[in-house]
C-alpha cells in the first residue's frame, strides 16, 4: 500500500502519533491543574485590595494559559485525525508535503511554512 501520508514513512507516522498522544495527555493534565488552581483562586478570601488584584490577575493568567493549551489540544486532535485518514504530512492549504524538519518541531502543524507565513501575514 503506498504511503499517502506525505513524506513520513509508517514507522515515522507511528512515532509522531505517539509524540502527539503524549503531548495531548500532558495538556489535558495541565488543563485539569489550571482548572483546579482557578477554583482555588476563586474560593480564596482576599483580605485587601492588593490581595484581590493579585487574585484576579492570577485567575486571568491561569485562564489565558488554558486557552492556549486548548487551542493546541484542538490542533493535536486534528493532526491525529489526519494521521488516521492518511493525510498527515500534507499542507491543508496547498497540498504540498510539509518538511520533516517542520513536522518534527511542530507535529500538530497543518500548514507548510509558506502557507503558515501567508496566513500569519494576512492576520496581522
Give a quick precis of the structure:
With 124 residues, the protein is mainly alpha-helical. It has four helices and no strands.
Plain-language structure description:
This protein has a domain at 10-89: Up-down Bundle (Four Helix Bundle (Hemerythrin (Met), subunit A)), CATH 1.20.120.910. With 124 residues, it is an all-alpha fold. Mean pLDDT is 79; it is low at 1-5 and 42-46. Helix 1 packs antiparallel against helix 2. It is built from four helices and no strands.
- Which regions are unreliable across 5 or more consecutive residues at pLDDT < 50? 1-5, 42-46
Number of helices: 4
Helical fraction equals over 70%
Oligomeric state of this protein: single chain
Mean pLDDT: 79
- Report the CATH architecture of the domain at 10-89: Up-down Bundle
Q: Could you give the distance between the termini?
A: 42 Å
CATH superfamily of the domain at 10-89: DksA, coiled-coil domain
Query: How much of the sequence is in beta strands?
Result: under 5%
Strand-pairing-aware structural class = mainly alpha
Element pattern in H and E: HHHH
Shape: flat
The major β-sheet equals: none
Tell me the radius of gyration: 19 Å
DSSP, total strands: 0
CATH class of the domain at 10-89: Mainly Alpha
Amino acid at each position: 500500500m503506498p504511503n499517502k501520508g506525505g513524506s513520513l514513512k509508517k514507522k515515522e507516522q507511528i512515532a509522531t502519533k505517539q509524540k502527539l498522544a503524549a503531548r495531548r495527555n500532558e495538556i489535558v493534565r495541565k488543563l485539569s491543574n489550571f482548572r483546579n488552581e482557578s477554583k482555588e483562586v476563586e474560593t480564596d478570601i482576599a483580605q485587601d485590595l492588593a490581595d484581590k488584584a493579585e487574585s484576579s490577575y492570577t485567575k486571568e493568567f491561569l485562564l489565558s494559559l488554558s486557552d492556549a493549551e486548548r487551542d493546541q489540544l484542538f490542533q493535536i486532535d486534528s493532526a491525529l485525525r489526519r494521521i488516521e485518514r492518511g493525510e498527515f504530512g500534507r499542507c491543508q492549504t496547498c497540498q504540498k508535503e510539509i518538511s520533516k524538519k517542520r513536522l518534527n518541531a511542530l507535529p500538530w502543524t497543518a500548514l507548510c511554512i509558506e502557507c503558515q507565513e501567508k496566513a500569519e501575514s494576512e492576520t496581522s
